[in-house]
């Protein structure tokens, strides 16, 4: 498969955009940059578009028709990708809540934001499906719940979209999809903004995830043409249009399609785009972007709790540049630890279970087990050494 490192790099940009959006909602005044960061929720839409594109890319030969074995494997791989980090951060919120209740008692709103039913919905990753208030516990996880809904739909969407075999037809399908999305928003009285975190987020993710799938169809067809080249110039132009559109308050229904064009242009990244988005730091930030996105709300909550114990700490907010830099550095450091010690090992372990069956992770094995494995390995090597000339 062709490497799409630039698309990994832009995940870092999307995650940081969301982090800065959270800071703009009451913690920091960004001055002239406020319009840009107050629309940072669009980083989630960029994730949804990317997800549809990348999953289609990774499973391009699967689901030409629905097969039970492939379906189970796909859903298990997706569960391995998102659930360990989700459950880990949820457990941190639970521990923090229980400790706070023991120390200072409950706060107004706790019965809503930290209810038992909401915790169950978070555990099952269905909190954005209209069964509870989605912005509870680890509130950014509403998008993970919506993403899980898209994963459940993907095999059937793939069966439908894989048969659209020309760029014009894919563009037409995308236009019809987006028009239907817009008309649905009008019918719901949600004109302009698509910052939907409730049950309507399932409409949002389905439209954008499917758009990403159609975008991949165009990419795959275009890639087969010998004249296909780089689109760095188009990327720069469309990025400028996106920024100007945000500053001039364009509707989200106009900005998001331009984000889709950004992804398409970046999939044909030339040297300029690769230098910006496909360098090692950006690729790594893209790899840990999910952990960064998920840990951000917990760190913000901890900071607000600490400011009540140490009021002087809130003076950092009076120096916005310093506060932003410290917040991002702390978030990236925590995301690195979360990725290294939770996300990556648990994902690899769960994915291996598909091929090798369930087994005890190595970090739970006793020292005697390691010793016996080393002894067996030494015996095998000694036998093989007699066969080597």
Descriptive overview:
The protein is an all-alpha fold. The chain is built from 16 helices and no strands. It has helices at residues 5-24, 34-37, 42-58, 68-104, 110-113, 116-124, 142-161, 167-187, 201-223, 232-247, 252-267, 271-277, 280-287, 289-309, 320-356, 367-385. Helix 1 (5-24) packs antiparallel against helix 3 and helix 10 (232-247) runs antiparallel to helix 11.
State the separation between the terminal residues, measured CA to CA. Answer: 39 Å
Mean pLDDT: 85
What ranges have pLDDT less than 50 throughout 5 or more consecutive residues?
363-389
Estimate the global geometry from the Cα principal axes: globular
Give the oligomeric state: single chain
Total beta strands: 0
Secondary-structure element order, as H and E?
Answer: HHHHHHHHHHHHHHHH
Q: Beta-sheet strand percentage? A: under 5%
Gyration radius (Cα, Å) is: 23 Å
Query: How many distinct helices?
Result: 16
Give the fraction of residues assigned to helices: over 70%
Major β-sheet annotation? none
Structural class by sheet pairing and helices:
mainly alpha
